[in-house]
Input
Amino acid sequence: MDEFERELREAMERRPAPPGLKRKVMERRWQLRSRQHRRMVWYERLAASVVLAGAVGGAVAWHHAAEERRRGEEAKQQVFTALRITNHALEQVSAQLEKQDRNKE
Amino acid sequence: MAGHWQPDFEQLVDEHQSMVFSLALRMTGDRGLAEEIAQDVFLELDRHMTKLESPLHAGFWLRRVTMSRSADALRRRRVRGMDLWVQLEEKHGVQMEECSSPETARLAARIDRLLATLPEPQRAALVLRYQEDLTPEEIAETLDAPLATVKSHLQRGLKLLRAKAATQLKEYIRGV
Output
């Protein structure tokens, strides 16, 4: 290393940082952290709302499906009842016809 | 070993603020911009605290990020067409107050001014070599550049600086 390089090294020593640098860094860091915290809280609320909406939607859909099943079952029972009545009526008609046939003989 | 060292953010800012600010200042020549870069670098450090493995790693990381942010700032300024070092004399006025003696301060200011006329890669290599006392290998690692390129930047930069100093500093010394 020659004289010029030695002078260069001497002239290029580190400069002191501005007096308020650390304070400004710490303030910005605090602001960033509180902003991140607020954002996190907002995301948590959003996630909770989505879960709640999903649960309510699921419950409504389940209730709707259950109601559909109940109505279907009711309709099925009505059809069976109608078939039973018809069957009973047909049996009575059949019995009367057999009775009339026997009387003719 | 990762995870064994527990870095303290405030302590790191205390230890390295002068280094980070000086690198940014010498690369950009603008105190305001250098302070802004230094703040951004430390905030980025805060986000990367868990990845730091040792005090040496922290220093290396800070140098690397500062040089990279300074280069980005210079690029943005070039795009915007702003001329750096316009208010150089005024800035040196401020720097002179910070140095030990007025003569050293004036010489440092002149050196900084000459340094500012060098191409950016040569300036970066010289700043890391003479301000941070890094070896060419460490500079290559910091700038993520091939060692041969760094050595070439150092040689050319020093030669250019020497040539400029031979004329301008002589005039300055005669003038003092």
About this structure: Chain A is about 90% helix and 0% strand. The mean pLDDT of chain A is 93. Residues 20-104 of chain A form one domain. The longest helix of chain A spans residues 21-104.
